[in-house]
Amino acid sequence: MLRRVRAGLGRGVFSGGMGLVCGWVRVQENRHMSFSDWFTGLTARFDADVMREPAARAGPVAAPTPAGWVPLLDWCHSGAGDGRCPWWRPGALPRVGQRFEVAWLDASCAPVVAAFCLHLDGSEALAAGGRLAGLLLRLRTKRDDALWWRARQRTDPWDCGHLREGTAALQALARFRPRRATLMVVEGLPDDRLQAVLRILREHGAAYRHPVRLLVLGGEPPAGGRRL
Known about the structure:
Elements: H1 2-32, H2 35-43, E1 51-52, H3 70-77, E2 100-105, H4 110-120, H5 123-146, E3 159-163, H6 167-175, E4 182-187, H7 191-204, E5 212-217, E6 226-227
Parallel strand pairs: 2-5, 2-6, 3-4, 4-5
Antiparallel strand pairs: 1-3
């Protein structure tokens, strides 16, 4: 009889302890994301349902020189943090101060922005280095994506693209989770559509593992957006 009581108490203590552990794990996953979020981002591809990749440059951009890209680059990295996670918690939400930001530029800057996107996403480096150098660059980028404890560098490639239009694109945007730092460009979007885009990005931005920047070209500057 005494053995059965002790066994019952032991099972009860064990079950209670496991319940506490499982509950703690669920709380941590809710607070700090999960290992699966990190792994999903690592295996993700460019989200073509949300963005169109920047078109290759047909000719040289008259101005500005790459030095003129510094304000754009500064804005992209402003508040982006170092993007690191503790080495013992790859599923933690990375250190990013401002996960979503919006800025505005005059539409006349569109050619410069197009060239900047090709620079920022590594397309220029891929085109200049040849096939083998391009493969090594892709492998190095994927390796850096995998090192969750590594600090983000200003030279790291971003995902860049023009936002697609339409209802399906808005639905895809609501599901969007950045695999790495991302620059989205929007041009000529009606105000109601732009407001819908901003609402989605601001609603989901707190859960983004990487900084997302929305650059609006032309039209009225969005409320709360920075003029570059």
